[in-house]
Amino acid sequence: MSMLQAITFDLDDTLWDNHGVMARTEEGHYRWLLETLENWLAARQAAPLGLNYAEGLADYLARRQQLVTEVPERRGDFTWLRLRALEAQLEASGLARSTALMWAAAAMNEFHRLRVQVSPHPEVAPLLSTLRQRYRLAAITNGNIHLQRQPLAEYFPVAIAAGELLAPKPDPKPFLTALERLGVAPEQALHVGDSWEEDVLPAQRLGMHAVWVSESGDQALPERVERIAHVRELAELLAWLEKRR
Ligand SMILES: [Mg+2]
Known about the structure:
Blueprint: E1 6-9, H1 19-43, H2 53-70, H3 78-92, H4 97-115, H5 124-131, E2 136-141, E3 158-161, H6 173-182, E4 189-193, H7 196-205, E5 209-213, E6 225-228, H8 234-244
Parallel strand pairs: 1-2, 1-4, 2-3, 4-5, 5-6
Bound molecules: magnesium ion.
């Protein structure tokens, strides 16, 4: 392999397990919104909204799906989708528009507070600490995690939120943006991620090296692609790749 100078990382399900965090965040910020907002209305002797948690949550999801079909270019901008869906739901429930906007924004603030409560695999911080002495590091995520607030932010001088570029992976744009900010050519960079479709294939097609983090997978690996079962195996793989070149 040619001189490797930079490593880009997917975050969700690569550096931490995301499933539980998303479920807690999805339910938690909506429950917070209903409870806090009803208390706020009660304190003003205003009529309660009467939004039912389960039905409201389902309606919130349906509104996001509807927005994706109406505004497809925003399909990867999950923060925008959530904000617009909440604003519309609150307004439809009887709040004045300005009040709906305020409470939707407050709910998204709570969403981001919960969303960054991820627990990176314990091996990750020491790994990144070692790697950054030798490589330039970047994060490329489709998730709407607040990149500056996530616990590994200090290791990633370059951090790309692909949804906000309106070009979620597998679009090549977030990869090209990262490479440009890192100042390296594709063949000098390696991308690490758990998704075959969103991480491995687009990186490989651009000429980057790629490491697929997957416990299983029988498919033949294209050139410049390796598979590891867990990110903790990355350092060993890199040592092997560097020796082989
Ligand atoms: Mg991922």
